[in-house]
Amino acid sequence: MPVTREMFNDVMVPNYNPAQMVPVKGEGSRVWDQAGKEYIDFAGGIAVNCLGHCHPAMVNALQEQSQKLWHLSNVFTNEPAIRLAKKLTDATFADRVYYANSGAEANEAALKLARRWAIDVYGEKKQKIIAFTKGFHGRTFFTVTVGGQPAYSEGFGPKPGAIEHVPYNDADALAKLIDDETCAVMMEPLQGEGGVVPPAQDFVKQVRELCDKHNALLIFDEVQTGFGRTGTLYAYEQLGVTPDILTTAKSLGGGFPIGAMLTTDAIAEHLKPGTHGSTYGGNPLACAVSEAVFDVINTETVLEGVKQREALIKEHLAAINEKYNVFKEVRGKGCLLGAELTEQFEGRARDFLLAGQEHGVMVLVAGASVIRFTPSLIIPEEDIKEGLKRFEQAVAQVVG
């Protein structure tokens, strides 16, 4: 049956508005559509395809595991799940791992665990959760309410309660709101969807200190920043702060759906059998692929390479900006970068995205005025240069 983009409009729920072209093949950091047109991929499936498309290590892991065991449910465990959990705990602060299928599910688990821990240890009154405006934590009703973008959570009826927000990078506002009835503070160590906003100096340390003062858990949502994206396995390693709970997804599977929540023994013990679960969580296929991704990424060569790619991309964006003066600021870390548009082009990030597609380069937006770049962590230098050359043509087109 021939498939066309028009068919999407007939058969899919209209909550997405995908590009007019339909990608059919990917290899490394290049993608081809139905017409055979080639694109350089700076979008990376929204910070997911950390090893690009069809990386041999991932393909081999999937093929090998697909001939052994696909699914069991959590009535049983499996070898890939245990191996991956051991590697994750050995490489981080955590002692324990809970598997899910997505970042939202990992965050849902983290929030439920925080509430359960607080009730078990301190009683029913300790239930307040504080998060940050413009934060993003997923689309389940609990996580989208904790996320600080009301447009995503309004219009669905009564929201989960005892959730409050303060501006990101405003430790004074947090200090006024946090109290002994706060069970957790949830934050991204570098805001992604909210505009690629880095934490101010000492802000994260101040958040940690306030959590300690009020016996609240600090939850780091590292769904977008994690698994090498910022140049260390997890971003918290660069901030001098250790969270109590960390969530990870996106790059964790390199394109295969998997999420995980990491925490300590003392906190984990509050999710006893039956308190939470996931039919597909810890699926052998997903864990086998994730383990292969881990083995490639958690090396000095790749993590240092992420920092080199950051410098190269920023250098080329600065050169583009010298010519066209479209960016107010380029910010972010590693392969999670955002170019904020000047007032002249405010609200037009999507125009640059669409022009990019015309010229054979895929980028993202992070709000209406920020162009986001989340390429493969191992994107070759020649692809960076070629992709930014095409992006410059797109900028020239929009500027007119």
Automatic annotation (TrEMBL):
Its subcellular locations are: Cytoplasm
Q: Which parts of the sequence bind pyridoxal 5'-phosphate?
A: 103-104, 136, 221-224, 279
Per the UniProt entry, what are the Gene Ontology biological process annotations, in alphabetical order?
A: L-arginine biosynthetic process
User: Kind of enzyme, top EC level?
Assistant: transferase
Which species is the source of this protein? Idiomarina fontislapidosi
How it assembles, according to the record, is: Homodimer.
Q: Which cofactor does it need?
A: pyridoxal 5'-phosphate
> Is Amino-acid biosynthesis a UniProt keyword of this protein?
yes
Whether Transferase counts among this entry's keywords is yes
Report what the protein is called. Answer: Acetylornithine aminotransferase
Annotated HAMAP family:
ArgD_aminotrans_3
Residues bearing N6-(pyridoxal phosphate)lysine are: 250
What detail does the entry give on cofactor binding? Binds 1 pyridoxal phosphate per subunit.
The beginning of the lineage is: Bacteria, Pseudomonadati, Pseudomonadota, Gammaproteobacteria, Alteromonadales
Checking PANTHER family in the record gives: AMINOTRANSFERASE CLASS III (PTHR11986), SUCCINYLORNITHINE TRANSAMINASE (PTHR11986:SF113)
Q: Name one Pfam family in it.
A: Aminotran_3
For the ligand (N(2)-acetyl-L-ornithine), the binding residues are: 139, 278
Gene name linked to the record: argD
| Cross-referenced PROSITE patterns | AA_TRANSFER_CLASS_3
